[in-house]
Amino acid sequence: MAQDQDFDFNVPPQFEKVTKNIRSIVIGLIVLFLGFSTFFTVDPEEVGVVVRLGKYVESVEPGLNYKLPLIDKVELVPVERQLKQEFGYRTVSTRVQSQYQKAGYEDESLMLTGDLNLADVEWVVQYRINDPYSYLFKVRNAESTLSDISEAAMRQIVGDRTVNEVLTVGRAEVSIEVQNLIQALVQEYQLGITIEQVVLQDINPPNPVKPSFNAVNEAQQERETLINQAKADYNRVIPRARGQAQETIQRAEGYASERINNAEGEVSRFNDLYAEYIKAPQVTKQRIFLETMEEVIPKMGKKIITDESGNNVLPLLQMQIDGASSSSSQNNNGGN
Q: How far apart are CA 279 and CA 82, in angstroms?
């Protein structure tokens, strides 16, 4: 005979306390989760783009902001930070001494030049995001698109130049033209990016032909050195020669002016003398003779004056001899 038994389902007080604590913990975790999923912080150099179920809602400024939990998603876009993409190498470490890795990226940097030579070109594209909405929603992957655009632009510009231009004198022009071309394509695709600079890090010929290219570069540098030395010599010698030539010309002009002035003075003197001669020929002849003798006689040494027949030569000679003897004896006495 079956007998009904009463079962006691009373819950112990300790179990009820544990149950209440678990419920409080779960509720607290839910509230904490909702709090963390509702509020978010945007750094000063970023802009927060709020997306609700895949659709753009708004862009929020730096600071503490909120969104709908479990529905909204936030994309943080660094609009104030300069970003970069590296081609042909990658930076491994940026400590005191930066380290780079070349292996595995040769396909990016090896390209064909306009004269059908190969060049190994490494470069960096530095850019900023100026339109977060276009950057996130206009293209599927803006970073990958920018990388493809940059590589295509560099290959196009390098392909229009010879290998010597790319390696030496054309580097600056290549950088500027690549930057302009990338910026035009970025605007066409509406990436929301501004290209600030394209830097050519290193351009080398392929390893098998590198010694030949180095020899060519050394020859070009030697040529430039010789040209500069020749210009320096030219700047040193030519101005001095011009100065000497100008000095010679000025001396010649001064000498010519002096001769002309003297000649004009002689002509004027002769004309004046001729005018006086016309007035009194005999007197003028006599005056000219006397003036000439007055100028010539003092320049002569011992002088003997005779008449036309020469009869009085001896007395004059005797007087001169006596005068010379007396002068000599006076000198000797004075010396004693």
A: 108
